[in-house]
Amino acid sequence: MTNIERFDQLTGRIFAVLYEDFPMTVDLTDEAFTDAIVVDPVDSEEGMDQLMARGEFFSATVLWLIKSGYISFYEDISKTHDMFLGCTLTAKALEALKATPSTLSGDSIGASLQAAAKGGMVEAIKSLTNDALSKGLALATRAAIDLATP
Fold first, then answer.
1. How many C-beta neighbours within 10 Å does residue 141 have?
2. Taken in order 22, 25, 15, 32, is the CA torsion positive or negative?
3. Which residue has the higher pLDDT, 24 or 94?
4. Which residues pair with 72 in a beta bridge?
5. 24 membership: H or E segment, kind and range
6. On the CB side of 134, how many CA atoms lie within 13 Å of its CA?
7. Tell me: the pLDDT tens digits for 23-60?
8. CA 5 vs CA 14, 38, 98, 123: distances in Å
9. Which neighbouring-strand residues pair with 89?
10. Bridge-partner residues for 26, per DSSP?
C-alpha cells in the first residue's frame, strides 16, 4: 500500500473519531491507529518498516491536517511524535464532514466514515476521506474568493 493510501486511511479514521466526539476534544495517539498505519503484515519487511516509523507517519499526517486547517489542538501543551492532545475538528472540517458524499445519498461524509471505520472498510474510508478533503478545499477556496470579492 502506498503512503498516500495509508494517509487516506489514517486521515479517515482520525476524522471518524473526531466527528463522533465533536465538539469534545480528543487526545490522538499513534497506538490507537496502528492498524491504519501498519497495513502490511508485521512479519514482512514493509510491515516492519511501517511499524518502526509509526510515530513519524502519524505525526506527519496529524501535522498536515493541522496546518491545512482541518484539526485544531492544544498548542500550549507539548506534542510528541506519538500524541496530540486536545484535538477537535475545525469549522471547515466539520462542514466538509457534514456534507453528503458524491457516491452516497442520505448519510453525511462523517457518519459514513464512522460506519466504514467501524466496519473496517478500507476502500470506503479512503474514498470518503478524499471527498472530505476535496470538500474542505472547495470551502477554503470559496471563502478566499468571497473575501477577495468586493
1. 10
2. negative
3. 24
4. 88
5. none
6. 11
7. 999 999 988 988 888 877 778 888 788 778 888 899 99
8. 14, 12, 23, 9
9. 71
10. 87
User: Average pLDDT in the 5-27 region?
Assistant: 92
Contact 129, 103 (CB under 8 A): no
The reported pTM is: 0.73
Distance CA 3, CA 58 (A): 11
Instruction: State the DSSP string of 89-115.
Output: E-HHHHHHHHSPPTT-SSS-HHHHHHH
Element (H, E) at 126: helix 122-148
How many domains does the structure of the chain reveal? 1
Contacts of 29 (CB under 8 A, 6+ apart): 82, 83
First-to-final CA distance of the chain: 46
- Closest by Cα among 134, 131, 91, 87 to 112: 131
